[in-house]
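Hello Y.,

Per our agreement to keep a running log of every chain we model this quarter, I'm adding this entry. I've kept the format consistent with earlier entries: sequence first, then predicted structure.
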Amino acid sequence: MQALRQSFKREMWYVLFLVPGLLLFTFAVIVPLVTGARYSFSSWDGISSKLTYVGWDNYVNAVQDASLWTALGNTFKYAIIMTIIVNVISLLFALLLDSYLPLRNLFRTMFFLPSVLSVVLAGYIWSYNYSQGFPKLFAALGLDVTSPLGNPHYALFGLIVVAVWQGIGPPMIIYIAGLQGIPGELLESAKIDGAGAFRAFRNVTLPLLAPSITINMLLTLTGALKVFDLVYVTTNGGPRFSTEVITTFIYKTAFSSFKAGYGMAMSMIFFAVLVIVTVVQVSIFRRREVDL
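Predicted structure for the entry above:
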């Protein structure tokens, strides 16, 4: 019993180190989540101190709101395309830069550098490129090119280009770390057995990269689903609602239309969607890791 008490006292010191993080998580995540859930059942305008509870009306109206579903569709379209392109390009760059390429450290720095920039700065840079830089460059070549951000058919893809340009750095580093953790003996054995480059990649490299693929797909997709600042500083949801994502739509509803209670209800719905997507994605890729 005495030994158990002494062990408990020793473990308590480790628990104390967790307290600051737990307090930060509580006040930065748990408290706002609970408060937002409370406001979502009211008609609060975001300014007055008086709350009028309306029950589930906000949630019913949100489910019936066609604009919300359009924004959610734009969000998933943006997130899925961006996630696939980022991971494919990042993996290709990682395979290239993990080889004995001259100046590979310089190239790693160059490809990672855009991710260091703030999203707001990247948005302004590419807005200028689309509106001024590229049209002037193509005009010198005799071509008439306009900004895709002004065309409702191409604006979302223009944003995806910016997101890919800025987003390939961190996944590339994770893939490089995963490649460097693969024992060279396995690849040598595959070559001795007559496996070509593609077969060695399919049967040796790809299965051992499965954990890196899982974490990159998860981080990229969840981050893309929560996109806000890139859309806000470039198109603000336009033209004609073509780039309106769920976060900007919630922001405008809560703070521009003064329907904070309704905006909180949409936030709760989006939070549930994020949880479901994350759980499904993790389960699929974990099962895929076992299959590989």
